[in-house]
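USER:
Before I trust my own judgement here, I would like a peer's view. Write it directly below this note and I will take it from there.

ASSISTANT:
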Amino acid sequence: MRAVIFGASGLLGRSVMRAFGDMTVTGTAFSRSAGALVAVDARSADAIAHLLGRVRPDVVVNCVGERRPAVWAGAPERACAGNVDAARLIAQGARRCGARLVHISSDYVFDGTAPPYRPDSLPNPLNTYGRWKLLAEHAVRGACPDAAILRLPALYGPVQHAAETNLTEIARQVAAGTPVELDDVCVRYPTHADEAAEVCRRLARALLQGQRLGSVAHWSAEQGLTKYRMALMIARRFHLPADHVRAGETDAASGDRPVDCRLDCQELPAALGPARRRLFDIEFPPAVEPWLTASGPAA
């Protein structure tokens, strides 16, 4: 079996590469291509077609996406292309080469007012990122109708730079000791990237075996936390002061952050069997500990 993972340099993409280790895997990247990753611009139909024509994969996983708000504001056209145009082009390429497709989407397609959200719940994104992810879903369905769309919440895990996850950014703020206000209204369900990757692998296997699944699937950790609550957990675990961290409404007040996008995940285990649930209390310390010093992790 052969797999192509688009966006393999990102947090989830790296975990998916490891999870698909029982296949012959080709990973792609654009701005961060290094080592064994193949440099591919996922906004180019020709580049995608060339790679898929050469590899002839059985399954394609699309982990491409731009989630950073600074990029939405600073380069919206480029960010839109990375989230929407790339999704359409990858889906078209997968269909043309006869590969099964797993496309990664987000819980931000929902407005957070009526959780839990089932796969067939009506999307209503509040911000640009959520709208792009929903447009990407529509593009994927149009280009590759039998694709599986997997919606995920905020992820965490071993990162290459602190801004790669909210959790590591919060850890840096806790360790810095500088007064900071963190939102204590909007609830997130931080899910380990390796757990999400394993679900992605099992979903891909089911597709390859001809199992009939719904076009949209949900996966998420079960524990809901605000940024402020995560900060307090980090401080307690590492015996750090937290007097400088204040509870606030910074995200909720903006009006473009959903308050609670909890995903109903019952259908996926029913189709694929029980999946391992990683406990945040146990898994978060190794992810944040390297980032609790001013210099960051040692090289």
